[in-house]
Amino acid sequence: MANLPTQFAGVTVVTKANVYFDGKVISHSVVFADGSKKTLGLIYPGSYHFGTGAPERMEMVAGSCKVTLDGQTEVKTFNAGEYFDVPGKSGFTIEVASGICEYICSFLA
Predict the structure, then answer these.
(1) Does 85 reside within a domain?
(2) Residue 70's domain is classified under what CATH number?
(3) Is 65 strand, coil or helix?
(4) Which domain holds residue 75?
(5) pLDDT tens across 90-105, in order?
(6) Taking CA atoms, which of 5, 9, 90, 100 is between 20 and 30 Å from 83?
(7) Is position 97 within any domain?
(8) What is the pLDDT of residue 2?
């Protein structure tokens, strides 16, 4: 289980939301003093596919989801406090059956 932060200090928050899939997935970008970036977001019920440019870590803050990484057939369930890594130049399908899944996405490269 990941040790998830409950807040970030000394950051810049981009006020314009990143809106995907007709508002079913929404995030805001957070930029740290060292230039690194994370997004904080919500995923509403449904199934969505995302591509990655750089490697990413998706940390579940609340809720539950099922994830299939590109090139794999295994579906894994992730709950609050857990995370999964996605290689760069790849992708994943994420499914939320009910409720809202909250996440932190860290860009690793």
Answers:
(1) yes
(2) 2.60.120.10
(3) strand
(4) 12-107
(5) 999 999 999 999 999 9
(6) 9
(7) yes
(8) 56
d(CA 39, CA 51): 15
Closest CA to 15 of 40, 48, 35: 40
Token pair, residue 37, equals 């970036």
pTM check: above 0.70:
yes
For residue 37, what are the contacts with CB-CB under 8 A and spacing of at least 6? 29, 30, 31, 107
Q: Which two tokens stand for residue 12?
A: 């810049």
Catalogue the E-assigned strands of the chain.
12-13, 18-20, 25-31, 37-43, 46-52, 56-62, 64-69, 76-79, 83-86, 90-96, 101-107
Lookup: tokens for 40: 């904080």
| pLDDT tens digits, one per residue of 59-90 | 999 999 999 999 999 999 999 999 999 999 99
Report yes or no: 91 and 33 within 8 Å, Cβ to Cβ. Answer: no
**What does R_g of the chain's alpha carbons equal in angstroms?**
13
**10 Å Cβ neighbour count for 26?**
16
**Does residue 88 lie within any of the structural domains?**
yes
Q: Residue 37 domain-assigned?
A: yes
